[in-house]
Amino acid sequence: MNRSKAARTPGLLWLSLGSSVLLAPLALYRIAIAPVEAKMGAVQKLFYFHLPTWYAVYVAFGASALFSALYLYKRDDRWDALAVAGAEVGMVFGTVGFITGPFWARKAWGVWWTWDPRLTTTLLLFMIFFAYLVLRGFGSLGEVEKRFGAALAIIGVLDIPVIKYSVERWRGTHPTVVTGKGGGMHPDMYPAYWTSIAFFMTLVIALVWIRARVERIRQRVAALELEAAERGLLDES
After folding, report:
1. Percentage of the chain surpassing pLDDT 90?
2. Which of 65, 66, 70, 107 is deepest in the core (most CB within 10 A)?
3. Sign of CA dihedral 54, 58, 59, 61
4. Is 220 part of a structural domain of the chain?
5. Is the CB of residue 114 less than 8 Å from the CB of residue 105?
6. Which class for 194: exposed (0-12), middle (13-18), buried (19 or more C-beta within 10 A)?
């Protein structure tokens, strides 16, 4: 058991170091030297944090939905731990996205928020997973709550394709900077963009991994407490 845990630790350690020690300073350096956009000015540099943040959200919520489906199929708490981890980490990155977004919107549109199709569908995604976490954190957590939460995560992730194509379908005001046909960025901006993507992707994987390990420990403690209660070891004398 201990050897198994020790064997998994280096991978997590190197992933964490790769994201925080190597990629983070490199991303900040490339963002600093990237050209300043003519119309947006320095505010445009928020793009290098804002867009990768939402990619991280999609990865985390997508992982939550995937592991929720595996939990429903296998009824194994290991998958449930990963599903919870994905939801929580996704909410953290989503909060960062909703903080950086309005600063961009204020400069580009003159308002902090508008009910643009992409913004509205993204808010819906955020609210679904918020409801998932509220359900998981409310009162005693039994199999019914776990299964209902898993179904909620699966339903929530179906909103991600809607977010992606909302601008094209409903002609919103939210810009589509990078597309399959190319982007609206200067070529000198791409090194900062791709380095930021790499940083956020490795970071979200590391955080989900770490949070899942913590959740597994919580599950084991809860199981021990339940077993002790059934044996009457927790009864007050």
Report:
1. 35
2. 65
3. positive
4. yes
5. yes
6. middle
Q: How many domains does the chain have?
A: 1
Nearest to 87 by CA among 145, 157, 143, 142: 157
Are 101 and 90 in contact by the 8 Å Cβ rule? The answer is no
Residue 163 within a domain: yes
DSSP 41: B
**Residue 25 lies inside a defined structural domain of this protein:** no
Within-domain flag for 55: yes
Which has the minimum average pLDDT: 89-98, 114-123, 177-186? 177-186
| Token pair belonging to 65 | 């939905």
Q: For 206-226, write each residue's pLDDT tens digit.
A: 899 889 989 998 888 877 877
Nearest to 201 by CA among 93, 65, 88: 93
User: What is the distance between the alpha carbons of residues 32 and 141, in angstroms, rounded to a whole number?
Assistant: 47
118 falls in which pLDDT band (50, 70, 90)? confident
Give the pLDDT of residue 73.
93
* Range(s) of the domain holding residue 170: 41-230
Pairing state between β 182-183 and 178-179: antiparallel
